[in-house]
Specification:
Helix content of chain B: under 10%
Low-confidence stretches of chain A: none
Low-confidence stretches of chain B: none
Distance between the termini of chain B: 35 Å
Largest sheet of chain B: 7 strands, mixed
Shape of chain A: globular
Number of helices of chain B: 0
Mean pLDDT of chain A: 91
Largest sheet of chain A: 6 strands, mixed
Strand content of chain B: over 45%
Radius of gyration of chain A: 13 Å
Order of helices and strands of chain A: EEEEEEEEEE
Order of helices and strands of chain B: EEEEEEEEEEE
Strand content of chain A: over 45%
Distance between the termini of chain A: 36 Å
Helix content of chain A: under 10%
Structural class of chain B: mainly beta
Oligomer: heterodimer
């Protein structure tokens, strides 16, 4: 079973920040949180990952709560090309356990 | 940069037929993975290879076999295809071995239909 919980869908206006939540209440102390996205039916694309501290790269920011039971992916200025399914994933041994993700729709 | 290349992109099989899905990466990555994705669902790991010469079962290995031919290539074989194996298959690779604390790169997928 997937170890993460995400809303099935979200809308966001173009140019605004998109905030995608994820719950991972059973995460272990040494497990990382990963975010990938999948545009249409293409291969998934890596976005960002983190353990405890907040992380930022050229694509997004990852905010992890202090108790590590939840996190938020932030796309600071969403564009139409950011419309995709976003997956929040935690590692389980050698595997990434994928849930159904959040379908993010960016509206003009 | 080619990255991860999968062939074929589309395939239709009859029940009971066999076929091999090919995957090659040109990034000198140690670890390679095969996933399947059913409609509306996330990816599920079939097999993985942490390094050349090793393979291990993932979450859903039944009905599949794999071969890590060399560092570049990792193939997935269906010996006797069943309709339940209709899915989109993704190959992935990443640098390093062991726990996945690095970025994984994915191919564009093989869309397989078993009738």
């Amino acid at each position: 079973d997937a170890k993460t919980t995400q809303p099935p869908s979200m809308d966001c206006a173009e140019g605004r920040a998109a905030n995608l939540p994820c719950n991972h209440s059973t995460i272990s102390g040494n497990e990382y949180v990963y975010w990938y996205r999948q545009i249409h039916s293409q291969g998934p694309q890596y976005i960002i990952h983190g353990l405890k501290n907040n992380e930022t790269n050229e694509m997004a920011s990852l905010i992890i709560t202090e108790d590590r039971k939840s996190s938020t992916l932030i796309l600071p200025h969403a564009t139409l090309r950011d419309t995709a399914v976003y997956y929040c994933i935690v590692r389980s041994n050698y595997q990434l356990i994928w849930g159904a993700g959040t379908k993010l729709i960016i509206k003009p | 940069n080619a990255g991860v290349t999968q062939t074929p992109k589309f395939q239709v099989l009859k029940t009971g037929q066999s076929m091999t899905l090919q995957c090659a990466q040109d990034m000198n990555h140690n670890s390679m993975y095969w996933y399947r994705q059913d409609p509306g669902m996330g990816l599920r790991l079939i097999y993985y290879s942490a390094s050349e010469g090793t393979t291990d079962k993932g979450e859903v290995p039944n009905g599949y076999n794999v071969s890590r031919l060399n560092k570049r290539e990792f193939s997935l074989r269906l010996e006797s295809a069943a309709p339940s194996q209709t899915s989109v298959y993704f190959c992935a690779s990443r640098p390093g071995t062991g726990f996945m604390n690095t970025e994984a790169f994915f191919g564009q997928g093989t869309r397989l239909t078993v009738v």
